[in-house]
Specification:
By secondary structure, the chain is mainly α. It has 3 helices and no strands.
């Protein structure tokens, strides 16, 4: 008897292996879109706002807490 994670792996492995050509292409498109969203857009549009303004984690935490409690 195989382990629970092994059964999960086998379930997904067999499911993806038996996909049609169209299904495999759709998963490829989905993975490319996820890569674009998380890798490329993050680099260009979501800069680290707190790293440029504060030196320590404590200062960053205090700023975030202040903004949550007393927003402008």
């Amino acid at each position: 008897m195989s382990s629970f994670p092994g059964k999960i792996w086998e379930f997904y492995y067999n499911g993806f292996r038996n996909l049609s050509w169209w299904g495999k292409r759709m998963w490829l498109i989905i993975l490319i879109k996820i890569f674009i969203i998380f890798a490329i857009l993050k680099v260009f549009f979501f800069h680290d706002f707190l790293a440029g303004r504060f030196d320590s984690d404590e200062e960053k935490g205090n700023y975030v807490m202040e903004q949550l409690i007393n927003p402008r």
